[in-house]
Amino acid sequence: MEQGELVVRKSYGGDVLFRVEAVRTHHALLKGTDYRLLADAPIPDLSVVRDPKKEKATQLVRVKVNDSLSRIRQQHEQMAVQVKADIRHAMPQSQPFFEVPGKVLHLDGDGNYLRKSMQLYQTMNVPAHGVHAHESQMADLLYRLLPQVKPDIVVITGHDGVLKTRLEADLFSLSSYKNSQSFVNAVGVAREYEKSRDGLVVIAGACQSHFEALLQAGSNFASSPGRILIHALDPVYIAIKASYTSIRDTINLADVIHGTISGIDGVGGIETLGRYRIGLPKPKITAAESSLQSIS
């Protein structure tokens, strides 16, 4: 068993694919490749994966991710068609327009997940600024970053979990969670910066996070209602959905939750207006065009 190898746990039926972070005498420290999960396991319980593409867990996740992104693209295309039809109806001749998707500020406690998230934002043409930081530093970072970046959407995520040493009755105590208190503190800073939930969309939490506390602190969307593992890209999917939902419409709760990999036990939220805008006419200046994306 070596650091960097891909493994699954035999005792869990190989349900989650991990990368070995460190090897100790009798056990290994593991990090989920798709789920925001840190774990340790006895070395004899681990099976090395040579071809992750053939693993059932990996295949199911990939299908769900592709399905979710295809749904967003399809909805975006339908919206563009409707915008063009509205313009043709209102104006004597067709006019090219430009798009202003919502800008994302993404704070992540995991560097690998942040890289995957930024790649996805780029693929979906969502303007995004990403920062890798320990969960405990996120609140202080937001004080500085929010007025600099001026985002429409903030993602606050990383690693979390219910502590094994907690008492059963303490499930709703923040002290029973690894990083939920840090996420709550960061959400509080975001809400001090912009009190309106429609003025700044906040998406917070990770695996097993204190869903109720995050919503009470001011999140629009949070994990995890069922205290389950969430997929690393679930917060990103919601952010993209918010970025490409018109400011005239609310983000469809049932649709966005269904579109996540983790589902209703992984993510929940409240009705929120989207952050996508269109503009007329399309700018002719190159510098302006570089910052505004045309779909005409």
UniProtKB/TrEMBL annotation:
Classification via InterPro entries: Peptidase_U57 (IPR008764)
UniProt-recorded name of the protein: Spore coat assemly protein
Classification of source organism: Bacteria, Bacillati, Bacillota, Bacilli, Bacillales
